[in-house]
Amino acid sequence: MTHLSKIDANLLQLRKAKDYSNVVNLRLDGSDQNISKEQIQSNSMVDVDYSSSIELSNGEYVCYQLSANYRLLTIYSLSAAISGTTINIHLPDESMNKHHTLTIFEIGGSVQINVILKEGSYLTMTLPVDYILNNVNELDQSWFTIKTPYDFQVRVPHLLCVVSADFSVVCLEDGGLLGLKASNDIDLEPILFNDNSYLQSITRIFSRKNAQVSGKAVTCAVFEEKYLVILTEQAHLKLWDLATFSLIETHDLSSEFETSEIRRYDTAGNLLVIYQNIITTFLPYKNGVFQIGRLSFDSNGILRYTSISTIPANLSSSSLWSFTDMKLIRPLDLNVNAAYLNLVLLWKCGAVNKLQILNFVNDEFQEYQWIEATNKSLNDIESEMGKDLSEDSDFTSLNIKSRYAPELLQEAETLFAKNQIIIAMNTEKSKKEYLANLETILKDLKNKYDEASSITIYKNEIIMVNCLKKYNHSVYKINSTFEDIFYNIGLEADDELCRYWKVLNRFSSTLSEETIRKISDEFINIVTGETSKSMSVGEKLSAIFKSTLQGRVGVSDIETLFKDMSSMNIVNIMNELIDRYLISHSVHNDDFVNAIVFDEFSAVVCAQSIHQLIVMQKRLLFEILLSVVVLDFEYSILESKLNEFLEIYYKQTLFIRLYKLNAPLLVNGLNSETSNYNVGIKLTSYAEWSSYLQFVVNTIYKFALESNPLFLRFFDIYTIKNIKGKERVWTETDKFLQFVQYPLYQRDSIIDEFMLAMTLFTSQNYEKSFDFFMKHDYATQLKNKLPQCLTDIAMDSNSKSIWSSILTSFDVSHNRSLYAYKLALLYFERNSMALSLKAIKKSIGYSMKETEITLPADFLEDQHRLHLDLLMYFNMFSEVLDVLRLSHDILSVNTRELYFTTLLNDARFKEPFFTTVLNSCNSFKESGLFFRSEDFKVIDDILLSNMEFPNWLSCKKLYSFRMANKHERAAAEAILQYLLQCENNLQEKRKCYLIIINVLSTFEDPSDQWILNGNSVIMLPELRRELQEFN
């Protein structure tokens, strides 16, 4: 049974696209430099040879890694890997014997690094803690020193062990020990220990025979700063007095084993650990053996070792696990009956890791038990089960990209390019093929990224594994009772909930992933109101069965489910589920440490563990609801519980989709809602971690369905702040709309549907957005119901948001007409003219109906001007004329003159508009004239100013306009002016005489048959004589 679960802690997981760590390269020749973003991205994908971390005196952790064949040392802060500085130190040569001759520790506000280089030099580097954590202060030339305290080419170093700030011990390959004591700030004094290894080494140099070599050390540890404990490759345990540099005693740990079982260690490593006075040693016998002993002083004050017990590893004899690391720690709260100490063990098989805990029940170390861990994160498990793949390639893409760190995705795409794998994603089938190949590569890369290097016990309790990839770690979480049930679902158990869940899990496993998704969507539809609200819960669940399961699930599977559940008290189980496993009433904000500064490690670990917990709980809720769909329950008894489960299921779905879309943004929202300083917590213990998880989950489940604060944070970024000018800042709004807002909005909710309209507009889905903008009477109903993010815009008089004018329209007396007008402007600015016209007509309609409201004159003019602009855009000139003729009380003379001028002069409008003018005048049946005198004069003046000789068309327009408006004499005078300009064109002159004569002939009274030419009166007879003379 597993009691711990793996949490991925890739520190880049919550990195925003624009965030990059400040990477500094240090070289011993002084050429330090910052590097580009592209180099930083490439830098984060470098394979690491060794990775570990140390705790500083201020409680922060510094990670250090060796790479580039042990020539590059990288250092970064665990809590600020992205916001802080990553330091790359380029060593002049590779380190001796990999990482075993490198030590790192804190001293006097600095981190000191000692490393023996392969060419024999002893390199010491000192970096101020502030320089590592905060990138403050420049390094001076004394930040490193290179010494040659001993001829390491003759006697080759094998291990380097720190005893104190000024004293280290070098374990040599010939089995000897060399002390290095700092005699001043510069020199190191070599001190040989009292053994015969030096003489043996000299003998081997001058002898042709291979003398028996004393076993070289494979690991060492310091006890009480006075004694050195050495384990040799022959499994000899040696105790050395560091005061006298003499050997106290030697123990052959292999003595109790058969000769055939004994073998040497393959490599050096952390094969011996000491906790207080208890020492645990790993022996490479059989499948691995752990020998427990005690260090104590005899009556003479001499240090002695006493063997207590020998425990074989709990691994299959056929397995190929290799020992990697171990830590002996105080007992964790592992839900066991008794515990004295815990031995945390890390094994590897290729790139696959295995973590175990050996729990010692008491101080006699004879009773023990093995605690197993789930060595794959829930993300890995779900990926292997094909949970990412969907019929919808967009949804599959979202799943995959949310599951893996950005650097993994980039490396996968690089591999595609290197191997010339090109898949044209122009069809749904090709997209699915690409995504399937991509996930296969990502799984392999993820395994490689997660390969373990060492264990760190974070805050003396939390188990962290350092991985062989930059910024990549894993954390093992102690399971809650609920998580224990989830991870051990296949085991027999007495717990009723566990048996119940096991039955449900067995049934749901018979369904395809696509069927499960469809059923899940139907559960969401119940909560959102997409399913008819007039139906009872029972009717809704029955409808789900008919639409998704009927005829698709085996009768025998249903019968088995019914038989297994018939003996269970379902109502009691559901009550217990909520009270014990979903919502805890015993956790509070003061049960954990609120961070003052954002801690990237804590944030990543908490985000991943919250997500995993909610995914588990959602799966259980789904299977419970599924059983209710399949079986014939008395719904009236369960209705309140089912409604509660459905609502929680909806909130779980919302959370998971937000997490997939943008985990960093979701974490920011959670931090604001659940921590005192809006930056989350600082992990300090398993208990506080667990309390925080439950507190966050409680908070999430208590959020209202409407105006969920986590959703609003996404809405603020993806919708409100996603437009600058007329352009979108980014296209992620489409995914937010597709996967979150549209499927999850509350139907008929005024707030939700108004916000949906805004997002549809931002996504340039203008038609649909208009439908939602007009669905409710928002102007009167939303005024005091706006969520805070919209209220802030409405209250900010200096806001530059495109939504400001819409939101402020709610506060005026003519809110309906102003709202529609502002909406029309929005669509007009986005060149969606048809929708803008609909909106402005709606606005004018409100203005005409609300006669009891006094409308501002400037608003009315702006409203009509926009209306005119849109009518002109669509060449709706009859309506244009109506607006201009009938709005004298709204539109000033100057405004009307401006529009008439544009309409009569602009090449786009002048011909069709003038035709409409004539037709309208000629077809006008009411008493009086079509145009008022003011409008007639404006148009007449424009046409008159446009007359140009020999342009007959301009003259004809003026003539036609005057005739259509019953100004016959003036019409004839226009022709006369044209006639006077036709000096040589006899045909044009004759035409003009005939027109003038015909016009004047229509006047019955001869005294009225005249026209003016300047100050001269010309009578009809005179014109006839002139025509005769002309003929």
From TrEMBL:
This is Nucleoporin Nup133/Nup155-like C-terminal domain-containing protein. GO terms for cellular component: chromosome, telomeric region; nuclear pore outer ring. It comes from Naumovozyma castellii. It is found in: Nucleus. Pfam families: Beta-prop_Nup120_160 (PF11715), NUP120_helical_2 (PF22114). Keywords: Nucleus, Transport. InterPro entries: Beta-prop_Nup120_160, Nucleoporin_Nup160, NUP120_helical_saccharomycetes. One of its GO terms (biological process) is protein export from nucleus. The keyword Nucleus applies. Residues 77-390 form the Nucleoporin Nup120/160 beta-propeller domain. Residues 501-683 form the Nucleoporin NUP120 helical domain. One of its GO terms (molecular function) is identical protein binding. Transmembrane segments: none annotated.
